[in-house]
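Agenda item 2: iron/sulfur cluster complex prediction
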Amino acid sequence: MKIVQAKDIREAVAAMCIAANRELPADVRAAFEAAHAAEEAPAAKEIFRQLLENADLARDTGLPLCQDCGLAVFFVEVGEDVRVEGSTLREAINDGMIAGYKDGFLRKSSCDPFTRKNTGDNSPSIIHFDIVPGDALKITMMAKGGGSENMSRVTMLSPAQGWKGIKDFVVNRVAEAGPNPCPPTIVGVGIGGNFELAAVNSKKALMRELDDKHPDPEIAKLEDELLAAINALGIGPMGLGGKTTSLGVKILVAPCHLASLPLAVNIQCHSARHKEVIF
Amino acid sequence: MAEHHLTTPITDADVEKLKTGDVVFITGHIYTARDAAHKRLVETLDAGKSLPFDLKGALIYYVGPSPAPPGRPIGSAGPTTSYRMDTYAPRLHSLGLKGTIGKGKRSDEVKAALATHKAVYLGATGGAGALLSQRITDAKVIAYEDLGPEAIRELTVKDFPLLVINDCHGGELYVKPNLG
Ligand code: SF4
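Presented output:
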């Protein structure tokens, strides 16, 4: 049995929230650099130049990459042989998030859905727990902006629609979203499961590194096919036209009911902020 | 594509010069407002009261900045997605608002209002909030402080870099997706 102190979790989560908002992940930066070189249209090139400069500034000044510091979303894998001491795990994570958003001068974007009154401290965090074998505690944090989240969708396709139906839906979703979710985007796709699992999987898929090839070569091929179809749309960075509408497509598949083909598309903006800590 | 340097307040003649794709640098004062502030602005108009700032010649920036760290006038301050303000924009344009600043597509009603009332929709680079904040030299809350990041602020900007997305002549900068 491993004992983890709630205080240590709080501190790690606070630090993770601040770092996620200030440091553009290395894979995303590398993708910006490649796209900056590949784009021919001056407007598209200029956007990548600005995004690279923005990332440098955020790193050097401590300002967040984007003013929308997002809702704080966590995927937590709790080993069966882990016990948290000092508070509940949920409290430790949420308190750490609150401290990080306060101390890091991050924007608090959580509000009541009816009155629209800001909760004031970005709580509650959205936390997905998974119980796994072993004695490790893995906490992954994503700062998820509203602009790209608003362009995301879940649909229940009919099994007969198959891959063509999936592809059409994903590509049309990105086309319709156009400039709204701050392209270049990363597109998370949850296929199968049920209504809610497809949605969760579409977000979980976004935690993979951009250069991470799907372990199933068939799915890896579908990811490439979708990315090519999306980039053929020509929307380009910020919708100004260009080769780079998305930097990557990440698929997560789960078995589903005989009657359904659930599909979720979670669009992530270029400010693809996430961090991970393991106890 | 031309480059323009404009100082607020913005005039009809300024707006008429602007064409889709032009680069515009704004110097002067602009006002921040997003979802909740717009709702209040319109409720204020409905109640027959006057607004917290003069709409004539004004520019509204759709932004909810992050908190200002010590020693800075403002935190990160990039645009939010504009379509959520589409229901409010035509009315504000009819009262003299000369432009809005945001990111993403506008409705046909907003585009028509730009032509009717000689106004412009300007795009700032989404997700470049740290970079854009460098062109903001001062920020003060002038209304609805309780809305936190959504409060209305008067920003003082110097050469704030923007692109003309929709001009008053019917131009549109965003590319239509090529669906084959
Ligand atoms: S979509 Fe992403 S990059 Fe764009 S404003 Fe929202 S959080 Fe920032």
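Discussion summary: The radius of gyration of chain A is 19 Å.
Owner for follow-up: CH.
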